[in-house]
Amino acid sequence: MTTTFHHNLSKDFSLILNDADDYNVIIQVGENNTKEFRAHSIVLRARSPYFKTALSVNWITRENNMIIFNKPNVTPIVFEMILKYIYTGELDLTNQSGEDILGLLVASDELLLEELFEYVQDYLIEKLNSWIYENVDLILHSVFNLENCKKLRDYCLEFICKDPLPFMSSEIFPLIKKEILFCLLQRDDLSIEEIIIWDYLIKWGIEQTPGLESNKAKWNEENYQALKKTLNQFIPLIQFVKISRADFFDKVRPYKAIIPNDIYDEIEEFYYKDTLPKNLSPRKGLLTKIKSSIIKPNLANIIFNWIDKKDIMYTRTINDPVYKFDLIYRGSRDGINNETFKDYCNGRVASLVLIKVQNSNKIFGGYSSIGFNSIGDGYFVEFGYLWYSSSDNFIFSFEHGEDTQNMKISRVIDYSKSIIINRAGFNFGWGSLCMTNQTLHLNNSDNAYENNLHTNRTYLIEEIETFTISP
């Protein structure tokens, strides 16, 4: 058995960093507020692959037998944290500003300090999300082109896409890098009306085109061609079929000169003949929002396709139904029990239930075109219970809240037993998917539904949500 004494090791290396007089490297840090740090090449090279290369014989500069190294792109505060980490393995971000922590992230990526980089990136997302919301433009400009910062970059883009208007209407939007704008317009969760995207794209293009003033009345043909060149890669990303005829006439048509002829001809044909363009934008766009704490919005499109009895990979178009999900019940808010569920989810209305179970990432759910506790006609009585009929019902499972690979669906096959009304909160078939207070049961013994979920067990419910669905 090996015994470790890391505490004293860290303490002793800290003394070497602060007090030793046998250093052989002077690192000059900062651009305007320059500060010198003293270090040991053997320690730097052992701890950082970057320094292992940078301090090799072929790269170093010496003065009086001392290695002189310049890092003007790193602030003294950030480099002090890096040196302490390199020498002692310690880091304290408690009293550091968001800007300095972001600088530490960028510097640790450059210096190839993988362990430090991963920690700082997670720290920003988990501990400083409020600061991220207020400085999302700064963060994107700092990390957008850093391959290792994908997690933070996607976090920022996802935040913007949930409510893009504050970002697009801000003073900094016309100044954002084209790579950031292009990435935004490609995303399938950009939740904003298409005509608003068009308006702000034009404003961005005007700002990005040298010599182009905002007063369009003074433009000549060369001005339009310059704007066209600026926006050339963005125009195909606009989903013109989602813009109303009135908005197209008032806001798009005046910029006909900047739209490629083939795209403009297809748009006109769509508005005059309702002919769908052959080359739709690669951005699908979410057709609706789902305010769920259980699943991510991208799974809503899969459920849409199941409702319409289409393949899960089907790409929905302007001609497909647009569904609206309205949250009517959430267990953590309203209580998880049979009576409460029935109180909130009573009535003959198309509904979706989602259930997250305890001690697992699995998500279960069910769709009923007639609701879960239906009233009115269309039932029969057996064993004292009411049975309702539907050919559209189905139950399903996801491996987790973002699963698009391993989901399973079981459609109703005995239409007469789609939903049973008994003491349970809801009951698909006779227990195919059934809520009994805090317990979820799955048992396909009555064969009312397909047996694709392949499970016969019970789970404790961690969270449950119900949505009514309307076109």
Overall helicity? 25-40%
Strand segment tally: 16
What is the count of helical runs?
A: 18
**In whole angstroms, how far apart are the ends?**
66 Å
Report mean pLDDT, rounded to a whole number. 86
Structural class: alpha+beta
Largest sheet: 9 strands, antiparallel
Unreliable spans are none
Cα Rg: 30 Å
Shape: flat
Q: Provide the number of structural domains.
A: 3
Q: What percent of residues are in strands?
A: 15-25%
Model description:
The chain is α+β, with helices and mostly antiparallel strands. The chain has 3 domains: 6-142, Potassium Channel Kv1.1, Chain A (2-Layer Sandwich), CATH 3.30.710.10; 163-273; 298-470, no CATH class. Helices cover 37% and strands 18% of the residues. The protein has 18 helices and 16 strands. It has helices at residues 6-19, 41-47, 49-54, 76-88, 98-110, 114-127, 129-134, 136-143, 150-162, 164-168, 178-186, 194-208, 221-231, 245-252, 261-273, 298-307, 331-334, 338-344; strands spanning 25-29, 35-39, 61-63, 66-71, 324-330, 351-357, 363-368, 379-382, 385-388, 394-398, 408-411, 419-421, 426-428, 433-436, 439-442, 457-470. Strands 5, 6, 7, 10, 11, 13, 14, 15 and 16 form a 9-stranded antiparallel beta sheet that branches. Strands 2-1-4-3 form a 4-stranded mixed beta sheet. Strand 14 (433-436) and strand 15 (439-442) form a beta hairpin. Helix 4 crosses helix 5 (98-110). The longest helix is centred in the middle third of the chain and has 15 residues, at 194-208. The radius of gyration is 30 Å and the shape is flat. The protein starts with 5 loop residues before the first helix and ends with a strand.
